[in-house]
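DM from R.C. (forwarded with permission)

"hey, sorry to bug you on a friday — could you get me a structure for this? deadline for the figure draft is monday and I only need the backbone to look sensible"
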Amino acid sequence: MLKRVLDPCSIIRVQSWDSEAIVPSAVEDILGVAWPQQTGTVASGPASVICVGPTDWLVVAADLDAAPWLKRLEESFQGSSFRATDVSQALTSIEIGGSVSRDLLAKACSLDLHPQLFPPGRSARTRFAGMPVIVRCTETSTFELIVTKSHADYLLCWLTDAAIEFSNPQPA
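My reply, with the result:
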């Protein structure tokens, strides 16, 4: 079972007060992806855009410095209902993977994680072991859990404890 805290990255929260608003085309050019409109979808490119709600997205980029991304997004959002906020210091990502990763995740949340319903490119905001977490499927058996930094240690401990049953074969 692979479990690790991912390297720090840029995470920018984009919100709009207008549920009918269309993202300016310049934003798609900046990010190199088509803006996802449906909750639970992810667009991946130079930066990934996770649609976590009807008017709520996370832009995740590998760069540690979010300032250039934020500046370009804010400029593109001028005159629109969209706003961008750097939340890089508030959130962290934990990756889990392996053949039992879906079973491990199912122990702590009510999502239907069947590969046909939750394939790569799918995400959901849910309660996970009592914490608010965004679960994102990045590969068939690999998931990214985005959680507040204040909950990260607890989540890692929970995952370690919950994974014990999958690492110790039971005698017949």
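R.C.: lifesaver. The longest strand covers residues 131-139.
me: no worries. The chain has two domains: 9-86, 91-166.
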